[in-house]
Amino acid sequence: MLSSLSPLTQLSRRLLRPSLLRPCLLRPSPLGCPSLPPSRPLSSPPSIWDPLDITHILSNNREWVARKKKEDPGYFTRLNSSQKPKYLLIGCSDSRVGAQEIMGLDQGELFIHRNIANQVLNSDLSVLSVLYYGVMELGVEDIFVLGHYNCGGIRAATGSKDLGMIEHWLRNIRDVARLHNDELSVIKDPEERHRRLVELNVQEQCVNLFGNAIIQQAQSERGRPRVHGMVYDIGTGELKHLDIDFKKVLKKYRDIYAVHDFSKHRPKEIGGKGGGKGGVEAEEIRRAFDEVDDSSRGWITKGELQVALGRFGDEPSDERLDEAFRAVGMPDADRVDARAFDSLVRVFTKAEGEVLVVVSVPGDNAIPFKCGGTDTVGDIKEALSEARGGTLKPSQMELLHDGKVLRDEATLEDCGLETFAEIEQRVVITPDQFSVKGGR
Fold this sequence. Notes:
Blueprint: H1 7-15, H2 18-21, H3 55-71, H4 75-81, E1 87-92, H5 99-103, E2 110-115, H6 125-137, E3 142-148, H7 152-157, H8 167-179, H9 181-184, H10 190-210, H11 213-222, E4 226-233, E5 238-241, H12 246-257, E6 268-269, H13 282-292, E7 299-301, H14 302-309, H15 318-327, E8 335-337, H16 338-348, E9 354-360, E10 367-372, H17 377-387, E11 397-401, E12 404-405, E13 420-427
Parallel strand pairs: 1-2, 1-3, 3-4, 6-10, 9-13
Antiparallel strand pairs: 4-5, 7-8, 9-10, 11-12, 11-13
C-alpha cells in the first residue's frame, strides 16, 4: 500500500508516526537534545491540596502541654477562664521576634498585634480594633511599640525600588525618614543609619499612639495607658528601652493632636464642711517637680521623690512613702510622673481635719479624694460619678469599707474614717436601668 503512494506522501507519513512526535526530553536524540534520566519521573506543579506532614508540630504540642501541666496543673484552667493582660504590644511580623519569649512573659500577660515594621496607622482598622479592645475592654496599663534592628521592612523602605502593593505600607516608613532626614543624613555608616531609623520609626509610632483618640480618651479618664518604645537586637537577644522625651515631643504638637481634656484626671477635692482645702497651689507643685526633673524626662525616681517632697515639709521616711503610694493607688510604682506627684504632695500636705479617701474602681486606677469629716458617702459618690465622666450614676454604685456597705447619708465621722481611708466601689443594678420610655 505504501509503495503505491508518491514519495512525498510516504515521507510525510513516516515523519508523522507517533514514535517521532514524542518530546525530545523523554528520549535520546541524535541531535543532542537533553533527556531526563529514566528513573526520574516528571514532577507535578505545586497544588494547594498537596498534603503537609505536621506530625512534628502536633508532637511538640503534646510535649508542651504535658510539661505545662506537670509544672502547674491548673495552668490551662486559669487561661481558659478569662484574659487580663497587663500589656499591649505592637510589634513587627518578623518570625525571629517572639515577643512573649524575649520579654520573659507567659501566656495571658501580653496582648499582641503585629504587622510589617510595627506601624501604628490611624487608617488601619486592624490596629484600631486591637487598641480599642485592649485599652477599653481589657484595660491594659502599658503599651509597648517594639521594633528590631535588621528589619526587612525598614531596609525595603530605604531603597529606591517599587515593591508593588507593599509599597503603600512602606510609604509610612519613608515619611518617618523624611521627618528625620536632617539627623539621618549626617550618619555616614549605612548600618548605623539603618539602626537609627529603626529607633525613630518606633518613636513616631509611639507619637501616633499619643495622638490616637482611643488612647487619649483612656488617658484623660484614668491616666492610662502609658506608652513605651523598645527595640530588640536579634544579633544579641537584648531588649533596649528607648529614652524618648515624649513630654517634649508632645508639647510641640499638643495643639494639633489633642482631642480630649486631660485636666479632668487630677486628684479631686470635695472640701466639705468639716475640712478646708488648704495645702499647696498646683503651680508650686509643678515647679518642685520640674526642679527635680531637670532633664525633662517627665518622671522622677522614688529617691528623687523624697527630695522633692522635702520641699513641702520634712523628708518622708520609706514607710511613709510606701503608705502614700498605696493611698494614690500605685503600690508597686518605681517612678512617678507629674500627675502622680501632684497626688502624692496633696497626701503629704493635707490640711488639719481633712480625710484622704482613696476609692478603688474595678478596671481603673484608684481615685483619691480630699474630704472633710462631715462630708457624706453620697457626696463622695457624686464626686466619683463626675470624675468618671458621668458614665456611672451615684445610684448605680455602692461604696464599701472593710467589706461593709456605707450608707449614703452617713458622714465620714459617722463611719469612723479619719485621716486616711481606702474604699471600694462596686456597681449595683437598679430598676431604673431597665425602664423603657413609652413602655406598656
